[in-house]
């Protein structure tokens, strides 16, 4: 792991750039200037596509990617879209952009991700109500694979397309297939706190060329190409990834596998060095599952200490932590939305915490965090 930083402040997940990243960007502009630099968006897309095995469009954010995915599936006002409740608001906000109606599905205990049982219940119930869902947005929380094979099988049975939110799961796989490539459309985030970063950015992937064409068109302000002037025949968006972000992304992709291995080692260290009487770690499907472990997350056992107390204690000791996702069906903006489940996600929120997991952490940092937690919980 990298050179030590100030030991009095251990961050949750800082952006981590190699010296080679900066050198690459500098040499790029010294060599070729801005005109050739624009080609790097395409190069980044090609390199990411090679890792995923299907086409990619690089975008300015994962939120924008979800928005364009919803448009590509022709979701309109008052249409129903099912979404994981245990996730960041950006997974569901784009549903509202198109004036559609979110319907939230609870987690299951096996992975903390969308429950296949409650998903099927939600689809059947919405169909009975005359509102067949137009899509399902399934999230791989903290980089741990959902039961994506079962979820895709259910959605295929009811002919409902899957948008796979792999914002936290680039580099993770299930049954040898990369997360984000199971559904009709997959999306990724390269935000500052992710396993690799472009300083902000996202991507959309699909095996369907016609969707790729639509996404490229909309993301570039729906500009009609091949004309000597600007012409626009549809509403467009400023969602294309910038050239600087793409250049950084090219360099960062070179270390993706190494970064995921580091995150998994961090998770394993916590799991091995923190007494099992204290914490229950986010589980992973035992067969053919390879989590990216974006954030090492756990539930606090017992009633002695809750996550508010642990959060405050860690903060006082110079350690950044974070509560688990507050379920979206409990958020004020979504309070009128339907919910199917048994409040598993709410229990996760009430008992859970995410610990420092960044690729810049040293062994001494991990030992310090573990010791402080043990001092409080044991």
TrEMBL record:
Highest taxon of the lineage: Bacteria
Coiled-coil stretches noted in the UniProt entry, renumbered to this chain: none
A single GO BP term for this record reads: polysaccharide biosynthetic process
Keywords associated with the record:
Pyridoxal phosphate
Q: InterPro entries in the record, alphabetically?
A: DegT/StrS_aminotransferase, PyrdxlP-dep_Trfase, PyrdxlP-dep_Trfase_major, PyrdxlP-dep_Trfase_small
Which residues of this protein are catalytic? 194
In terms of Gene3D superfamilies, this protein maps to: Aspartate Aminotransferase, domain 1 (3.90.1150.10), Type I PLP-dependent aspartate aminotransferase-like (Major domain) (3.40.640.10)
One Pfam short name: DegT_DnrJ_EryC1
Q: Which residues cross the membrane?
A: none
* N6-(pyridoxal phosphate)lysine: modified positions: 194
Family annotation (SUPFAM superfamilies): PLP-dependent transferases
* GO MF assignments: pyridoxal phosphate binding; transaminase activity
Where in the sequence is the signal peptide annotated?
Answer: none
Q: Which family does it belong to?
A: Belongs to the DegT/DnrJ/EryC1 family.
Q: What is this protein called?
A: dTDP-4-amino-4,6-dideoxygalactose transaminase
Q: Tell me what organism the protein belongs to.
A: Flexibacter flexilis DSM 6793
């Amino acid at each position: 792991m990298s050179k030590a930083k100030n030991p009095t402040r251990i961050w949750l997940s800082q952006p981590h750039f190699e010296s080679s990243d900066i050198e690459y960007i500098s040499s790029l502009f010294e060599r070729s200037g801005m005109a050739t630099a624009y080609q790097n968006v395409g190069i980044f897309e090609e390199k990411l596509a090679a890792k995923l095995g299907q086409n990619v469009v690089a975008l300015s954010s994962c939120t924008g990617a979800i928005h364009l995915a919803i448009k590509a599936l022709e979701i309109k006002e008052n249409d129903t879209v099912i979404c994981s409740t245990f996730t960041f608001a950006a997974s569901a906000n784009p549903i509202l952009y198109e004036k559609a109606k979110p319907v939230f599905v609870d987690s299951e205990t096996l992975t903390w991700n969308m429950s296949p049982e409650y998903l099927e219940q939600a689809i059947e119930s919405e169909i009975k109500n005359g509102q067949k869902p137009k899509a399902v947005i399934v999230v791989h929380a903290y980089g741990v694979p959902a039961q994506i094979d079962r979820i895709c099988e259910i959605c295929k049975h009811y002919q409902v397309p899957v948008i796979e939110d792999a914002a936290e799961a680039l580099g993770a796989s299930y049954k040898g297939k990369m997360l984000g490539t199971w559904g009709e459309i997959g999306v990724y985030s390269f935000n500052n706190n992710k396993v690799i970063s472009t300083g902000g950015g996202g991507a959309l992937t699909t095996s369907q060329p016609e969707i790729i064409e639509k996404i490229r068109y909309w993301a570039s302000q729906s500009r009609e190409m091949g004309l000597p002037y600007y012409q626009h025949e549809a509403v467009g968006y400023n969602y294309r990834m910038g050239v600087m972000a793409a250049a950084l992304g090219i360099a960062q992709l070179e270390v993706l596998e190494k970064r995921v291995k580091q995150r998994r080692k961090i998770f394993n260290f916590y799991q091995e060095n923190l007494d099992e009487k204290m914490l229950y770690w986010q589980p992973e499907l035992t067969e053919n599952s390879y989590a990216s472990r974006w954030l090492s997350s756990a539930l606090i056992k017992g009633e002695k200490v809750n996550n508010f107390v642990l959060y405050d204690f860690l903060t006082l000791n110079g350690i950044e932590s974070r509560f688990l996702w507050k379920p979206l069906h409990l958020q004020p903006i979504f309070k009128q939305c339907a919910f199917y489940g048994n409040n598993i996600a709410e229990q996760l929120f009430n008992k859970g915490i995410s610990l420092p997991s960044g690729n810049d952490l040293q062994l001494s940092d991990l030992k310090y965090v573990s010791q402080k937690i043990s001092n409080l919980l044991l």
